[in-house]
Amino acid sequence: MPATAPAPLRSGDQVAIVCPARSASHEELAAAVAVLESWGLRVVLGDSTNIRHHQFGGEDDMRRRDFQQQLDNPDIRAILSARGGYGTTRIIDQIDFSRFADNPKWIAGFSDITTLNCHLLRLGHQSIHGVMPLLFDQAGGEDSLESLRRALFGETVRYAVSAHPLNRLGTATGELVGGNLSLLQTLTGTQSDVSTAGRILFLEDIDEYLYAIDRMMVHLDRTNKLRDLAGLIVGHFTNPQDNTVPYGQTPNEIIQHYADKYRFPVAHGFPVGHEPHNMALICGRKARLTVSPDGTQLEYL
Question: Taking 90 as the threshold, does the pLDDT of residue 101 lie above it?
Fold first, then answer.
């Protein structure tokens, strides 16, 4: 069955900001609160904000209880993850989604929040892979922020991207799935693992060694995550690392090496990932990917 979408936000709705992974202070979130209020929303800062346990936004149980509280509160219409980092996989199996179908709401974030995006899609619900509150005021991120607003409020979204020399032409339709490559590998075989068959997969990552990108792509291929794709979108692979002896390929070339085993269309250079130009993608939403000599277009159906 197709993944279901929560109702679009409306002016006056209440939204929560929580820290399921790394910590974020109220001072760091002040700009995001101002932006959300300018959209007509009322903002609740969860108990996991403005608290720190080592790198985390509180101990595991604190972060879990805060997320669960916002998840179960019918007055909260969206939950925004303040930032990524690491930590969501430590608590995901203790979160109870049994009441979510009765009160679905938008959950948004990226990077470590790929865990939530995939877990929700496995349960049959759409969510948003998009810019997080800690980054709302980053220079050059205005288009990304607007794309998040449009996704949350149910407005029409269509993306057009310049051609890339590694692109493989073609058209694909399917639900969007994906996010951070290292998280997708980490989730394999868990309760948050999600099928990619017949779907359009998008990938991004940051600070990974080139050999590690290859190793993760080998893993995706060996677990048949690439075999039955409808299409592939390659986003930002920011700040890739290399060894003293160079690996010899760029992240895009590594990924294309494995994509070349199959025939689905491939779009490189898509603006999604750990850079200011990080356009919101709705995981679980059916879309059409068109890769032509003139560039790439992505539109929801």
Answer: no
Read off the pLDDT band of 281 (50, 70, 90).
Answer: very high
The model's confidence at residue 118, banded by pLDDT at 50, 70 and 90, is: very high
CATH for the 14-152 domain, from 3.40.50.970, 3.30.1300.10, 3.40.50.10740, 3.30.310.80: 3.40.50.10740
Q: What are the residue numbers of the active site? A: 111, 204, 274
pTM of the model: 0.97
Task: Tell me the CA distances in angstroms from 210 to 21, 69, 77, 254, 259, one per residue in order.
Answer: 25, 40, 40, 8, 17
CA atoms within 13 A on the CB side of 227: 7
> Do 205 and 213 touch, CB atoms closer than 8 A?
yes
DSSP result, the chain: -PPB-PPPP-TT-EEEEE-SSB---HHHHHHHHHHHHHTT-EEEE-TTTT--BTTBSS-HHHHHHHHHHHHH-TTEEEEEES--SS-HHHHGGG---TTGGGS--EEEE-GGGHHHHHHHHHTTB-EEE---GGGTT-TT-HHHHHHHHHHHTT---EEEE---TT-B-EEEEEEEEEEEHHHHHHHTTSTT----TTSEEEEEEES-BHHHHHHHHHHHHHTTTTTT-SEEEEEEEES-B--SS---S-HHHHHHHHHTTS-S-EE-S-S-SSSS----EEET-EEEEEEETTEEEEEE-
Average pLDDT over residues 168-183: 98
**Distance between CA atoms of 267 and 250, rounded to whole angstroms?**
15
Looking at residue 1, what is its pLDDT? Answer: 79
Q: What is the CATH number of domain 158-300?
A: 3.50.30.60
